[in-house]
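Prompt: May I have another protein with tokenized structure?
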Amino acid sequence: MQDLIQKLGAIGVVPVIKIDRAEDAVPLANALKNGGLECAEVTFRTDAAEEAIRLIHEKFPEFLIAAGTVLTPKQADAAMAAGATFIVSPGLNPEVVKHCNAKGYPIIPGVCTPTEVEAAMSLGLSYLKFFPAEAAGGVKMINAMSAPYTRIKFMPTGGIGVGNIKDYLSSKAVFACGGSWMVPANLINEGKFDEIEKLTAEAVAVVKEK
């Protein structure tokens, strides 16, 4: 897990993708790579997610691929079998966390309250998704909540964009951020991968300024 967190920390931002057609996965990953990011979170919000993960993993085995919006142990198994590097969930589901721990799957579940942080700690977790970040109080909430939980680090996701990502990354409690602004669904569906590459490069440049 530590190696994964170090890699994510070096990258700084993880594109959060909703993909409707599996055939868009490889050109999308290629656009991300050309823009400077060899990582992606493919959310299980569509039926194409599992195949998209498989195709990206086969074409770009060096990619860090998160399977996002994982809500069940079955989805976690399918994602890891397809080639996902780790699991991300929007909330803290003890059943899913215990399953992933038993299987050896790295998992970063979502929390947004101290109670949820302590529940995650009781499950042996130290790296958590803070979601929905902006709606739940943003950087101020993360900094306040991290004071009593100094060993917990967060990956905030939700409402993060080019205008505020540096604020999040400036927090000592944040190891990386998730964001979808460089991979909007309309550009994916329209096949405008050159625009996605440009947005990705701009995101990378902003992260490097932190």
In short: Residues 2-204 form a domain with the TIM Barrel fold (CATH 3.20.20.70). The longest helix spans residues 193-208.
